[in-house]
Amino acid sequence: MQAHATTRSASGVTRRGFLLGAGGIGAGLALAGCAPLGGSSSRPETITFYVSKPEVIGYFDDVIAKFHDSQRAIRVVRDSTSNMSANFVRNRPPDLGCLNYNYAMVSFVEHGALTDLSDLPEKDTINPDLWPLMQQTADYPGRTSVLPYSVTAASVIYDKALFAQQGIEVPTTWSAFTDVCERLVRAGITPMYGTYKDNWTIAQGMFDYSVGGMLDVPATFAALDREGTSVGKGSAVSFEEDFAAPVGRMVDLLQWHQAGAASRGYGDGNLAFAQGKAAMYLQGPWALGEIAKTNPDADLGTFPFPATDDAADNKVRVNVDLGLWIPEASRKQEAAREFLSFLMSPEINDRYNADNNGFGVRKDSPPVSNPALRGMQDSYDDARFYLGASQLIPAEIPVANYLQSIAFGGAPAPQLRTLDGDWARLALRSAA
Amino acid sequence: MSLQAPLRPGTTATGSVRSVDADRTAGRRGERSNWPVTILLVLCTLSVLVPLYVTVTMAFKTTSQAVDGNAFSLPAPFSVDGFVQAWQLTDFPRAFGVSVLVAAITVVGTILLASFTAYAIARNWDRRLFRWSFFYLLAAMFLPFPVLALSQVKLTGLAGLDNPFGVAILHVMFQLSFSVLLFTAFLRSIPAELEESARIDGASTGQVFWRLVFPLLAPMSATVGIFAFLASWNDFVMPSLITSDPALQTLPVLQQMFQTQFSNNYNVSFASYLMAMAPAIIVYLVTQRWVMAGVTQGAIK
Amino acid sequence: MATTTTESITTAHRRRRGGAAPRLQAGSRSRRRVDPLFLVFLVPTLVLFTLAITLPAAMGIVLSFTNSVGFGEFRFTGLTNYVAVFSDPAILQAYLFTIGFSLVTVIVVNAIAFLLAIALTSKIRGKIALRGVFVLPMVISGIVIAYVFSFLFANSLPAFATALGFAPLEQSILANPDLAWLAIVVVTAWQAIPSTLLIYIAGVLSIPGEVYEAAALDGASAWRQLVSITAPLTAGYILINLVIGFKNFLNSYDIIVGLTDGGPGTSTTSVAMSIFKGFSGGDYAYQMANATIFFVIAVVIAVIQLRATRGKAAL
Fold first, then answer.
1. How confident is the model at residue C281 (pLDDT cuts 50, 70, 90)?
2. Could you give phi then psi for residue A146, rounded to 5 degrees?
C-alpha cells in the first residue's frame, strides 16, 4: 500500500519527497522496543528492524513479540521514523529493512550497499516469476539484494451489484470493454470515476494499465535504457512512437469518466465509488480499505484491464509492496538473518499477506484472501503481470504531471516528446 | 510639514506610552474607538476562522464521517476517537516533551546569540569585521536547505549530535541570520545617547548591554522568540533527518504517519495538529503581552 | 523626564536626516580600540555558524561538481551538472513561474500586512483577541491548510460562483492551468501575512506616540500621517519584509504540493519542487547544482532589492 513512484509516497503534501532517497520516511510510531530480559547469562543481541508502512506497524509489533517469545538470544527494536538516506549517510542503516521495493531503493542496490541473500534457504522458496520483476527495478549483478515479502496487484475494481443490476459481464477484450461502457452510459451510470486532481492516480491507473496491456514492459524499458541519450524521433524505441498507442488508449478512456474529474481527488473518488456513483474504478487494493470506511458492505470485484482485443494480453499491474534486505554496513547480519528467516516462515508470511490484501510470494503461497481481489488470482498465478511503467520512469521525470495535462484535454504528442527529451537529458547526466 | 516635538519635560497626556498602541488608553480617556476599522478587521478574521472551524470540526468526527466530503458539517456523532488515536500513535506526551525541549533551547539560544551579535555589529558598524559579518550572515540566509541537508547529517553524526540537541543547535543557527537582521533594525531606534550617558556614569559595555539595552530590546526579543519557537515547533524536515533514535523524535515528524498518499485519516491527523497548535498559540499570546509590557516599560526608563 | 527628552532628540535626529533612519554606528565618534566584549559577542557565534551552516553548504556545493548520490563513492565531473541545468527547459519554466509568482505574492502580502498592522495598532476594540486571531495561519500546519483550501477551491468557490452566475470560477480554479497560480498566491499570502504582520507591528510600535500627536496637533489627516510618518519610519522593516518575503516565496514548496502538485500539468511547478523531486538518489548532484544556481539567483535578487531602495532605508 505504500510508496509508489511519486515522491509523495508516504505522505500527502510535504517535503518527504526530497527525503525519499530511501523509500520509507518519517512516518511511524515511536519505538516499540522490548527491554532485554534480565537474568540471562549472555546479553541478547539487539537488531534494528525498519518498517514504516503505517497500516502494518501494529501487525509487525505483534510479530516481533512472537519472535521474542520464541527465543532469547535476539531482541528486535522497530524503527519507523528515521530517514533512510540519512541512515546510509551516517553509515548506520537498520540491520533489517522492510520497505516498498521501488525506484527509491535503486541507489542502495546499485551501489552494492545491500548484502547478498542468495545463500538463504528462503530464497529458493520464492516464486521464480518474481525475480525478473525485482531485476527490472534495480539489480546488482551476482547478488540477490532484496527478497520479496508481499506483492500487491492492481487492476479494475468494479461494483458487482451495479454490474449484476445491468446484466453486464466482466469484459475480456477491449471491444467488450467499450460496449460495457456504452451500456452504462445509456443506463445513466458513470462507467469510471476519475480523480485527475491527484496526478498519481492517472499514472498508476489508466496509464500503467494501458502501457502494461499493450507493450512488453521489461523489453521496452531495457531498450529505452540502451537508447539512452539518443532517444527521440527516429530512434529504435521512443516514448513518442512506442507509447503513442497506449496513451491513445488512455485518451479513449477519458470520455467514459465523469465530468469534472479534473477537480476530484483520491479521497473524492473513494467516497463516490463507495456511494455507488460509478461502476468501475481504476485503482489498487489500497483503495479498498478507504472505500470500506464509507461503505464496508460494498460488493466489489476486480478484473484485469483488457487493453487489446486479444484476451491473452490481459495482465495485472503488480508491485513489490514489501521487500526484505540487510545492508553491508550492519554489524549484526547473523542476527538479522535469523529474524528474516522468522519473518519469511510460511505462517508469518502468509498471514501477513492474508491480512493486508497482498499476494503470496512463495511457490506454495495460498491464494489471496480478500474475495474482491480473486479476479486477479489467475493472472497472478500465470505470471501475466507487469510492473507499472510509471514506476520504471525515474522520479526526476514528472510523468504524472505530463499525464495530467493529457487527462485535462491536452494533446498527447507534445507530452511524449517531452518525455523523450527528459529521458535523453537524464541519460546524459547519469552517464557522466 | 513641520513636526513640533513636545520638548516639555514630564509625561505626555498619554502617560509616556512610547507607541501609538493605545491599548491602555482607549476608552479610558473617553477617546472614541475606531469602529469602522474594528468592524473591517472582524470581517477579515472570517478568512482565518473559517479554516479553523473546518479543522476543529474534523478533529471531532469519526473516521467514516471524516471522509464523507462535507468539510463544513458538524460532527455527528461527536467523537474524540481522533484525539485518542493521535495520542496513542504518537506517544504524545513523550513527543510533546521532546518538541518542547528543542523549541525552548531554540528560543533561548536564538534570542541570546542574536542579540549579542546584533549589538556587537550595530555598535561597530564602522569596522570591517563587523560589517562583513552582517552581510555574511545575511547571505547565508539564502542558502536552500537541500544544499546543506545531507552534509549536516554527516557532520552531526560524526559529532555525536544526531539527537534533539543537535536539532536545537541547528534550529538556532538557521534562525540566526533573520533574528540578527531584526535586532539590528530595532537597535536603530535605541539612541546612542542613552548608552553614552550610561558609560559616562562608569558602566562597562557588558553592563550597558545587560542593564540598559537588552531590556529595551524586549519587544523585538518577543518577536524573534515567537518566530524561533514556531520555526522549531513546526519543523519536521530537519528532525527527521538528524535524529537517529526514533524514541527521541519530535511531534511533527511523528504526525506524518497519519496522512499517507494512499490513506486518509483526517480526523486523526487534524486532532493531532490541534493538540500541537495549542502551545504555539499560548506562546504567541504570552509573547504579545511581553511586547506590550516591554514597550511601556522601555518608555519609562 | 529623560524619556521625552530622549524621544525628542530622536525625533530631532530624524528630522535632521530628512526622514531617513539613523545610521547604525554609535554616534559619530569612531573608536580606535574595539571593546573585547564585542568580539566575545561576535566571534564564537560566527564560528559556530560557520561550522553548522557554511561548512555543510560548501560540502554540498562541492558535491554539485560530482556524480554523487548523497552517500558512497563519487567522481568529479566538473561542470557537467551545470551545463545540464541550463539546457533543461523544465527548470527554466520553473524559475520563470517561481519568480513571477513570488513577485506578485510579496506585493500582495506586504500591502495587506502593512495595512493590517496599522489597523491593529490603532484605537480599536478587542485588540488582543484580534491580534491573536490573525496569527493563527502561521500556527496551523501546512497539511491542514492544503486540505481546507483544496476543499474550498474545489467545492465552495464553484458553488458560490454558480449561485452568482460568475462563469470563470464555476470550475475549480485549481484545475485551470492559467488561473491555478492565483489560488496558490491566495493561500501563500494567507499563511505569510501573520509573520509579516508581526514584524510590521513591532516596527510601528517603535515609533514614538508623540510624533503622531504632534502631527495631529498640526492638523495632519490619518492618511497624511500614514504616508509621511509611518511609512518612512518603518522603511527598514518594509525592506526586511520585502527581501525575506521574496526569498521565502522563492522557496515555496508545501503549499504548492498540497494544492496542485505542480499542476495542472507542470504549470505551477516551483524551483523548490523540482529540486526536491529529483532528490531520490540518482539526481542528487544534479539538483545540488540547481540548488547552487538557485542560491546565487536569490542573492542577486536580494542585492538588487537592496540597491534599489538604498536612498530610502539604509541598512
1. low
2. -135, 135
Phi and psi angles of residue B260, each rounded to the nearest 5 degrees, phi first:
-95, 170
Domain residue limits at C285: 81-308
Tens digit of each residue's pLDDT (9 = 90 or more) over B191-247: 888 888 888 888 888 888 888 889 888 888 988 998 999 999 989 889 999 998 888
Closest CA–CA distance from residue C290 to any residue of chain A (Å): 13
Q: What is the ipTM of this complex?
A: 0.82
Structurally, chain A folds into a number of domains equal to 2
Angle between helices B81-89 and B92-122 (to 10 degrees): 70
Residue B288 near chain A (CB below 8 Å): no
pLDDT (tens digit, 9 = 90+) per residue, B4-43? 333 333 333 333 334 444 444 433 444 566 787 888 888 8
Q: Show Cβ contacts of residue C222 under 8 Å, excluding neighbours closer than 6 positions.
A: none
User: Residue C173 half-sphere exposure, CB side, CA atoms within 13 Å?
Assistant: 24
Q: Which residue has the cell 533543461?
A: C88
In a domain, A386, yes or no: no
Q: Report residue C171 CA to chain centroid gap.
A: 31
Do C280 and A396 touch, CB atoms closer than 8 A?
Answer: yes
Q: Which of A174, B176, A305 is nearest to C44 (CA)?
A: B176
Q: Is residue B157 part of a domain?
A: yes
Interacting residues of C92 by C-beta distance below 8 A, sequence separation 6+? none
What backbone torsions phi and psi does residue C167 show, to the nearest 5 degrees? -55, -45
Q: Which of A88, A108, A429 sits opposite C286 (nearest CB)?
A: A429
What CA–CA distance (Å, rounded) separates A150 from A95? 19
Domain that holds residue A365: 16-152+320-375
Q: What share of chain A is helix, strand, coil (3-state, %, to 5)?
A: 45, 15, 40
- Give the closest of A15, A88, A265 to C276, CB-based: A15
CB neighbour list of residue B138: distance below 8 Å, 6 or more residues apart: B177, B181, C302
Cell of C282: 540518482
A408 → closest Cβ in C146, C265, C277: C265
Report yes or no on C285 lying in a domain.
yes
List of residues 6+ apart from B76 with CB closer than 8 A: B65
pLDDT of amino acid C74 = 86
Query: CA nearest C52: which of B95, B161, B97?
Result: B161
C221 in Cβ contact with B1 (< 8 Å): no
Cβ-proximal residues to B88 (8 Å cutoff; 6+ apart), any chain: none
**Taking the CA atoms of chain A, what radius of gyration do you get in angstroms?**
22
Confidence of residue B173 (pLDDT cuts 50, 70, 90): very high
Total residues found in chain A within this entry: 432
Count: domains in chain C: 1
> How close B255 gets to chain A, by Cα (Å)?
7
Cα gap B179→B101, rounded to integer Å: 20
Q: Can you give the CATH number for the domain in which C133 is found? A: 1.10.3720.10
A408 and chain C: CB distance < 8 Å anywhere?
Answer: yes
B226·C141 Cβ contact <8 A: no
Whether B264 sits inside 8 A of A2 (CB atoms) is no
Measure the CA–CA gap between A323 and A319, rounded to whole angstroms: 10
CA A64 to chain centre: 25
A345: Cβ–Cβ under 8 A, 6 or more apart, which residues?
A: none
How far is Cα B282 from Cα B286, in angstroms, rounded to an integer?
6
Strand partners, A154: A317
Closest CA–CA distance from residue C167 to any residue of chain B (Å): 23
